[in-house]
Amino acid sequence: MILDPAQLAALSAIVRHGSFEGAAAQLNVTPSAISQRIKALEERMGAILIYRGTPCTPTDAGTRLARHADDVTLLETQVLQDIAPDTNRSAARIRIAVNADSLATWFVSGLSRNAGTFFELLIDDQDYSTDWLLRGAVSAAITGQAQAAAGCSSTALGALRYVATASPAFVARWFDDGVTPRSLVQTPMMNFDAKDNLQHRWIRNATGEKLTPPAHHLPSTHAFVDACLLGLGWGLNPLSIVQRHLDDGTLVTLMPDCPLDVPLYWQTSRLMAKALEPLSKSIFSAAREQLVNIPHERVKQKY
């Protein structure tokens, strides 16, 4: 089955803009033409690809096809760059799953070294981002898992260092007798969302016990820091973000000798490995500059 490039472009544009009108504006055609292309593509595939609504959203099949369309554009861009560098070509777009803390600290530095490429980032916990690869929704992901998803390669990047932090007043109020299992179990802490287990991992590392303190859910890296500064609770924050607050004393660490280093891996579709190579090199460079426990030799796994 040969897929119509114009139909795929319409699908990708709808997924990107969330409407037939937005897709039409990008492709310089009428909304009616977009509708006809999607209808024809759905009939050809025998499946609904777009949920019509506000905004329009893709079905699982639509998500996979939209990523395929972006991958085809990226491959064409690479070929034209090699054999006809002066040819006008469509801008490549790469879909990546990344955890919020990497996005807030080091990851954008890697993206910025790829001029002429557009990125669509999907935010998810590093322990769950491989799900996006398995669903065919992204071409690459920052994950916390060494084992590669099916059809992918996994390369060790290093670790993002976290420290358990709180305001001095908060520590004086809740940990006046020290940071112990007894104090931790009753002290308010923060989780990013229901998937976030960093605080619980730190507690097990620090105390050897499995505890469930009362918790706020704050799905924002910078709100996490603000909440610590304002005494809402304690939480694990990337060291690079809170270092200045630790230096000026507005935050303190609960246990200075107990950081939590979270290993990160760069997983990419093997089919797209060659096309993604420039981006991968940029990600490795940014990781080397800003992460800790950098592997002397990057370990790559293929499954």
Strand percentage, roughly?
15-25%
- Mind telling me the CATH class of one domain? Alpha Beta
Order of helices and strands: HHHEEHEHHEHEEHHEHEHEHEEHE
Cα Rg = 22 Å
Provide the helix percentage.
40-55%
Determine the number of helices (DSSP H or I, runs of at least 4 residues): 13
CATH topology of one domain: D-Maltodextrin-Binding Protein, domain 2
CATH superfamily of one domain: Periplasmic binding protein-like II
Largest sheet: 8 strands, mixed
CA-based shape: elongated
| Average pLDDT metric | 92
Q: Count the beta strands.
A: 12
Distance between the termini: 27 Å
Poorly predicted runs are: none
Structural class of the secondary elements? alpha/beta
Query: What CATH architecture of one domain do you see?
Result: 3-Layer(aba) Sandwich
